[in-house]
Amino acid sequence: MAAGTPLLKDELDIVIPTIRNLDFLEMWRPFFQPYHLIIVQDGDPSKIIKVPEGFDYELYNRNDINKILGPKASCISFKDSACRCFGYMVSKKKYIFTIDDDCFVAKDPSGKDINALEQHIKNLLSPSTPYFFNTLYDPYAEGADFVRGYPFSLREGVPTAVSHGLWLNIPDYDAPTQLVKPSERNTRYVNAVLTIPKGTLFPMCGMNLAFDRELIGPAMYFGLMGDGQPIGRYDDMWAGWCTKVICDHLGLGIKTGLPYIWHSKASNPFVNLKKEYKGIFWQEEIIPFFQSATLPKDCTTVQKCYIELSKQVKEKLTNVDPYFTKLADAMVTWIEAWDELNPAKDSAKLPNGSA
Amino acid sequence: MRTPPSLVSLAIDSALAHLSNISDLSFLPDHILIDLFLKTLRAGKLTEKILKLFIATGKEEVLSHIEALNIQLVLTPVLPTSKKNLRMSQIIDDNDVDIVIGALHPDLTSFLDEWRPVFSRFHLIIVKDPDLKDELTIPGGFNLHVYTKSDIDKAVGSASTASLFSGYSCRYFGYLISQKKYVVSIDDDCIPARDNNGGLIDAVAQHISNLTTPATPFFFNTLYDPFCKGADFVRGYPFSLRSGVTCALSCGLWLNLADYDAPTQALKPGQRNSRYVDAVLTVPVRTMLPVSGINIGFNREVVGPALLPALRLAKEGKFRWETVEDIWSGMCVKVVCDHLGVGVKSGLPYVWRKERGDAIESLKKEWEGVKLMEDVVPFFQSVRLSQAAVTPEDCVIEMAAAVKERLGPVHPVFARAAEAMVEWVKLWKVVRTQLSP
Fold it and tell me: Cβ atoms within 10 A of the Cβ of B422, count?
């Protein structure tokens, strides 16, 4: 454990979606035990999910979600890990760390266990630098700094809203790539964290993700996926694109890179292909939409930005598929539900960032 | 009774046993020479030194034996065959590459000896800093051309030599006259670095690999370079963007003495970069970066004219802390690349940068460069080129006009930079015309 990284155990919730079991928590015990867990149980609510002894947690199944949100529960996906975003909404903490139940502790090249949560906290507590690329990656990391030519006026950075971690072993490939390269494993440990530059989109994976709920929480809606929906495995992607556009607009930063976790389970590529199939075509339209999306100056809160985005989604993406009208409506429902469960405080209001 | 050996054969056997003491074989009659040669071969004693002895005799029969047997002098050292030791990922035609070295130090012996395993396959262009008074010392065994002040004066006129090619900028003359597709340039105070397994890093091979695999500037891949072995595009990466674009510039990094500016290094005098980040990534479109000239490679055919010596500080010196010419040049190239739809990569390879200079001394002498970045960066972030600019030359001319108009009034160094950019494009056109067949 590096000296000086605060535990934040009373300010951080760990959100875990699960449909099978939580055995993986045993391996994480040394790192997770101090924290409060929010378990979002997907699938059959009558199934009992056993949580290992000694963890402090709250668990929500589908019945709980329906009870708490009433009709607004329609915005929370069923039979898809997208349901995890309910956990974000119901949390009362400043930070969220979310992890999949097939992700385990990885080892760094020296053989030491990686404390992923500690690295995420480091990432979130140090600034981001989205306005100018630093060739030595994260300048706030130990042993690094800003390089020659980096303007001093940009060295303070901006607040970090999201920390996107990576995965060793089974890489996060889409179904076509999985089919072509079924045995490819990610063995490359890239010892870097870097800020994703302003104006650049990226594919955000929800397997190993942390964010500042107070800064960006309402943007982390994982969309309508799974049962009854024409698409799956695009929940985190959708949230990532919305979040990046909003972060760029509000002057917040997103980091990617360390920490690594060990991803153990390769999902069935044929099942994945069925889920992703439409998404593969739709993303060709969705990406240009997000790349050119602009938000008006009066969108000064995340919620306002998100509502505005939902309008643009309805307007510009409905001709791709009527699904996007449903999604746009769900985005609004999500914000309404969020505001209901998280009554407005001043912390939601942020000034626009500088260009 | 066995026939006793003849005196001749005894003499030859004795010569064979003492070959290492013999320095000249030319006095030997032809038939004895051939006999000695064949016996040397059979005994397995033909070393490089002894082969040279035989070749030096100039005798036709020996030479034709050598040719018939295809015996060759090994000029290039035998490279390690273990893949771990050599980070080669692409088959390159050595004739497509020029290694351009700006010589700011007269004695290049240890520099070139350290780089020999990597450089010896290629043609080298060594440009001597016109301000350097001492003669250059260069070890043998390389295929190279050296250009000194008089060569530069002859090619471009002494006025241009002074305004464009002094100090670190001398290397741009090498870019100007190179006729190869790829150029790799490394500062003369750097030696090969070692990777995490202790293997020598072939920086040239890595640069060429970066330049010969596509760049992906339009969407960020979280697993970094998708074209490297063991990696790919991740879920959510649009398929239409997966073929990528040409990579025109490859920016490498440095272990040990990192390329910090003087204030940073002065504040942290003991800080050394020991973090080996095993990644190459494309710098996204419209994202500006500080390109360090210490360790770069580029596709001269695609962006050559856009790497230019223009921003000359008033007290520019012979330490990187006292320059920003490469930062300016790098941002010009990035704007041009973004405009032309080609890519820039950053990351591997690493070189090992030797200890040199005193950051505090440099800071005392030249701090203006740091201040100027406050104007330089916003300018490059906002400059836009017209649709009519379709070549790097066009782009540079448009940028020069924008520099003159928007930055010229801010500081005279920018007005001079704009002039230098225009002069450079003119020179480029003139010299290229002279060089083309």
Answer: 17
How many whole angstroms separate alpha carbon B248 and alpha carbon B252? Answer: 13
Q: Which residue has the tokens 């999902």?
A: A267
Per-residue pLDDT averaged across A260-275, rounded?
92
Whole-number pLDDT of residue B315:
82
* B367 contacts B262 by C-beta, under 8 angstroms: yes
In chain B, the residue whose alpha carbon lies closest to the alpha carbon of A279 is: B236
Provide the mean pLDDT of chain A. 93
CA atoms within a 13 Å half-sphere pointing along the CA-CB vector of A230? 14
Interatomic CA distance for residues A281 and A283, integer angstroms: 6
Q: Which residues of B177-186 are buried (b: 16+ CB within 10 A; e: fewer)?
A: bbebbbbbbb
- Helix, strand, coil % over all residues of chain B, rounded to 5: 45, 15, 40
B258: nearest CB among A147, A202, A256:
A147
B254: nearest CA in chain A?
A136
Contact status, residue A280 vs residue A176, Cβ threshold 8 Å: yes
Q: pTM for the complete prediction?
A: 0.85
Q: DSSP string spanning B11-22?
A: HHHHHHHTGGG-
* pLDDT tier for residue B82 given thresholds of 50, 70 and 90: very low
Strand partners, B347: B252, B280
Selected for mutation to probe chain B from A135, A170, A234, A280 (highest B CB count within 10 Å) is: A135
Can you tell me the ipTM of this complex? 0.92
How far is Cα B269 from Cα B267, in angstroms, rounded to an integer?
Answer: 6
Q: Which of A110, A145, A148 to mutate to test the interface with B (most CBs of B within 10 A)?
A: A148
Are residues B236 and A204, on separate chains, in Cβ contact within 8 Å?
A: yes
For A285, which residue in chain B has the nearest alpha carbon? Answer: B238
